[in-house]
């Protein structure tokens, strides 16, 4: 973890840039915000492109946003390596319809090799629609070598 506030903020902005640069995020109208170490929020908008046949968001949208929010909450604590998701458990509690949704991720434990983080999806009414818990481990991939990882 970065020791100086300026160093931490630069790492958070670089992770936000990395998120924006990921090719998968061209498919989702979303932005990442890391306000502090161990916390990440993804703001996104759902529309019918993400719906299953019954007119609500498909589970892929739930998983992607929960996984990303938990992942970035955990990776905010690691300044040298990209983390990898090793497991993720989901609980879907409410159908998501068109509109804004926020995924809130929070680091829970671990600071060496394995990290645990949780996330929840909050709909436009302020209701929780899903939650998940993931485990993430350090990879051999240096963050500094990834396209998009740069402070803005």
Automatic annotation (TrEMBL):
Keywords of the record: Hydrolase
InterPro entries: HotDog_dom_sf, PAAI_dom, Thioestr_dom
Keyword set includes Hydrolase: yes
Membrane-crossing residue ranges in chain numbering: none
Chain ranges of the Thioesterase domain: 55-129
Full protein name: Thioesterase domain-containing protein
Protein's organism: Sphingomonas psychrolutea
Pfam (any one): 4HBT
């Amino acid at each position: 973890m970065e020791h100086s506030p300026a160093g931490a903020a630069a790492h958070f902005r670089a992770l936000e840039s990395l998120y924006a640069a990921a090719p998968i995020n061209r498919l989702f109208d979303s932005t990442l915000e890391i306000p502090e170490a161990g916390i990440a929020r993804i703001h996104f908008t759902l529309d019918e492109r993400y719906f299953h046949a019954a007119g609500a968001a498909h589970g892929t949208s739930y998983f992607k946003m929960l996984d990303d929010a938990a992942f970035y909450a955990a990776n905010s604590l690691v300044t040298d390596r990209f983390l990898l998701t090793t497991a993720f458990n989901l609980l879907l509690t409410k159908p998501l319809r068109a509109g804004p949704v926020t995924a809130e991720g929070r680091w829970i434990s671990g600071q060496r090799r394995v990290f645990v983080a949780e996330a929840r999806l909050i709909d436009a009414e302020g209701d929780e629609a899903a939650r998940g818990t993931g485990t993430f481990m350090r990879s051999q991939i240096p963050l500094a070598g990834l396209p998009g990882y740069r402070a803005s």
